[in-house]
Amino acid sequence: MAKAVIEIDHVAICFRMSDDKVRTLKEFVIRLVTKKINFHEFWALQDVTFTVKKGDVLGIIGHNGAGKSTLLKVISGIMKPTKGDVKTHGNIVPMLELGSGFDMDMTGRENILLNGAILGYTEEFLLEKYDEIVAFSELGQFIEVPLRNYSSGMVMRLAFSIATVVNPEILIVDEILAVGDADFQEKSKKRMKELMSGGTTVLFVSHSLKQIREMCNKVLWIEHGKMIAFGKTQEICDRYENKKGVTNEN
Amino acid sequence: MKKKHRKFHHINFVQGCALLLLFYLFIAGVFYFAAGEQLYWRESGYELVSLEGDYATPELADGFVVKQEFFCGMDRLQQVAVPVTTFARKNSGTVTMQIYDETAGRELASASWDMQDVTEGQLLECNLDDRTIWHHTLSIRLSSDGKAGGAIAPWYASTVTKEDSRFSYNDEPADGTLCFFTYGKDMIWTGFHYFQIAGAGFLLLLGACCLLFYKKKYKKKSFLLNLAALLRRYKFLIKQLVSRDFKIKYKRSVLGALWSFVNPLLIMCVQYVVFSTIFKADIENYQVYLLSGIVLFNFFSESSNVAMYAISGNANLITKVYMPKYIYPVSKVLSTCVNLLISMLPLILMTLATGVKVTKAWLLIPVDLVFLLMFCMGIALILSSILVFFRDIQFIWSVLLMALTYATPVFYPETILPDGFRATLNYNPMYQFIKCFRIIVMDGVSPEPRIYLQCFGISLLYLLIGFFVFRKTQDKFIFYL
Fold this sequence. Notes:
The complex is a heterodimer of chains A (250) and B (481).
Chain A: E1 4-18, H1 25-33, E2 39-53, E3 57-61, H2 68-75, E4 83-88, E5 92-95, H3 108-118, H4 123-137, H5 152-164, E6 170-174, H6 182-197, E7 201-205, H7 209-215, E8 218-223, E9 226-232, H8 233-249
Parallel strand pairs in A: 3-7, 3-8, 5-6, 6-7
Antiparallel strand pairs in A: 1-2, 1-4, 8-9
Chain B: H1 2-6, H2 13-35, E1 41-43, E2 55-56, E3 66-71, E4 76-85, E5 94-101, E6 106-114, E7 123-132, E8 137-144, E9 153-157, E10 166-169, E11 172-173, E12 177-178, E13 181-187, H3 189-192, H4 194-217, H5 223-250, H6 258-279, H7 286-308, H8 310-313, H9 315-318, H10 327-353, H11 365-389, H12 393-407, H13 419-422, H14 429-443, H15 449-473, H16 477-480
Helix pairs in contact in B: 2-4, 5-10, 6-7, 6-10, 7-10, 7-11, 7-12, 7-14, 10-11, 11-14, 11-15, 14-15
């Protein structure tokens, strides 16, 4: 059997939210004195337990605010769970949203190094793969131009090329598969499939059931921070669709 | 495949330790060489209250001898100086000053002046070539071969008598105390025990290396090992972030990085024009005094202002990618540090242009800068983590920074501060770093060891506070960004 790459064990995340965020000292002091600081607890995730094996492509579905992104943050180590335990084996590469790791004033070349470093690649590796990244992004001579002059499609192509050059053990994709024009979308889909067949574990959040059915072999369904179901793509997607149908009728 | 790449420049643990120990020995050696004399002696803290003379003694004529015995709590005496009056007339003959060690019963030094050349109010200075006196009772003996009506006389304070001093005319006790100044040095034990201290440091370091080796071998957790691993892993990222910040700062400006060079010079010019008429008389080499203060203080204010936003400004990355959050403020401070190093250049050029000689003590400049860097890191860690929770800190800090600018003698001499306020300088970290720097560059000597210790203590304290504040709060950042 394939080795477990991600083990999520009874994970819960609790946000302690004051009714509105107290960000200034004055406000804080006033509230403290008048004893109006009342936090209410909000459980973004509750008792989530599942295991992802090497090579799995896990789709995560659920309505807006269900806790999908929070779950990804817990897995990638950005958030620490309030309860429970997360174990991951292997390096995690998140596919960043458009431009988060980029500096718009720097050229494509500088951004490849910067973004690569942010994703945890080594210098030698990046220099070795530099040509490959440029070739895949189809940017050509634009690589020496500051990013502020790129079209948004070009930026996304560059981001995708950097994120997928590495064959990460765990790749996290948060709804950015539709990148660039139709040709590049085709190419990137192919690259994703390549990665998956190469043993990369992919965590994939999307609202498009079509994409999920196409790419994933397992699906996790969460709603209001709670696990509804975890299992084979076909089965869960059908249930999800039926449920949606029911709620829509109501 | 990736694993292979990660171990590209791999120095193993033992080599790393050996390098560290060698580096330590090198630094200890250079420090000993550069600090030199100042490790052994410092300007004496023993102060004889200098008296305002209100009368002159009878003139030193026809074998009249003025003698002042006093206790001198110094280890080494360099100079004794006595102010004299000529009675506004032409005098002739030779005046002689002799310094005796009364406790040991021997003469220490003597000097003579032709009274024709002595001017009104002149200080007669008798040099003792660093004679060691070990807290003895000394005496000053003044006499001359001049004739009555043609000799000079020293000043004395007629109403002051002190327990440990005796004033006499021709060995007859008299009231009052002679006006005189002494300059001397005290011994410091650091110099005489330097090799023991350095050796102890070496052994400590060696012990730490062995402990780490043991922990590594048995796979135990160790904070230092983790730190080393993190540094190795994120070295490239820090490099990229620093170079990004540095490039972005001057991108789209015509002069580019040259601004780091020109900017402090221009600020200095402005402040020089504004303040030089007020303070120039009080400060030797005002340009260098001003520029060194500006460069160091600018580094502090810039790094704290930039690093304060290190966490909140990188919110989009922090919520997306995992990496140790320390990296953000640390890289900001480091990129400002590049600016500091560039600004050092005009400072050094200006110093040379004003005729200050380069001495071996200049090797100690990096020591001061490292302390300053540690201090700024600490402040950056504190501010960046506070800003996430309380945005008010940015406004509070701008006021605090301005207060500190005026509280630190950057463009004015510390002597203009009223006594009560001058005491606060001891608690002003920036003042310590700037003072240390000025002693090295302007006086060309190392500050006394106590000052290094102070600077090191301050910087370590702030760094540790910063580290703990940051570590305590970092897991909560994500909820407030």
